[in-house]
Amino acid sequence: MKVVLIGDSIRMGYQPFVARKCQTTDIWGPTINCRHSVWTLDHFQAWVADQKPDVVHFNFGIHDASPMADGISQVLLEQYRLSLERFIARVRQLGHTKMIWATTTPLYLPKEGIPMPEWSLREEYSIDAYNAAALEIVEREGLAVNDLYDVILRNDFSKCLVEDGCHMTEFGNEVLSDAVVKAIGLLL
């Protein structure tokens, strides 16, 4: 059984935890950050098709939604939707591979002198809009959903996130990896 994990630096954080918890399963992921949806499509052959996975657990969104200097997202929402649809179609062409979509985790705005539990979400990233667009597509396509956004909220984001408001503490990686392992187990 081979599971491919596709995602950004959040995936890179929880992947070793997933591998440790799934010792009888071949857990593989790129050694680099998969960044945004267009980058993932550009590397689809090496990162997905060549791996011949039984399951692909995937996410892209933080980099897609990330605003550039002009305030516009790096990957526009319509382009993000199209990239997601293309990714799903390409995985389906592999034949037997099952898919799990993971929602993008929340981003918080660090505020000097303010305790982390009082930080607010970074609204300029539009994570909610990107997650909603993805959920509409993956639910229509009948894919399993792993709501990592909710995992962080349910487990107290201030215990899950480091001071940058984005990346995970060891505890955050533990709870995310638990959710990934559970999602994989439901498909096997």
Q: What does this protein structure show overall?
A:
This protein is α/β, with parallel strands linked by helices and 188 residues long. It has a single domain, classed as SGNH hydrolase (Rossmann fold). The chain is 46% helix and 11% strand. The protein is built from 9 helices and 5 strands. It has helices at residues 9-21, 37-42, 44-47, 62-65, 77-93, 127-140, 148-154, 157-160, 170-187, and strands at 2-6, 26-28, 55-58, 98-102, 144-146. The protein has a 5-stranded parallel β-sheet, sandwiched between helices. The longest helix has 18 residues, at 170-187.
Question: Summed up, what is this model?
Answer:
The mean pLDDT is 97. This protein has 188 residues and is α/β, with parallel strands linked by helices. The chain has helices spanning 9-21, 37-42, 44-47, 62-65, 77-93, 127-140, 148-154, 157-160, 170-187, and strands at residues 2-6, 26-28, 55-58, 98-102, 144-146.
Computed over alpha carbons, the radius of gyration is 16 Å
Strand arrangement, major sheet: 2-1-3-4-5
The CATH class is Alpha Beta
Helix content: 40-55%
Order of helices and strands: EHEHHEHHEHEHHH
CATH-scheme architecture: 3-Layer(aba) Sandwich
> pLDDT below 50 for ≥5 consecutive residues: which ranges?
none
The shape is globular
Number of helices: 9
CATH topology: Rossmann fold
Give the terminus-to-terminus CA distance: 9 Å
CATH superfamily grouping:
SGNH hydrolase
Strand elements, count:
5
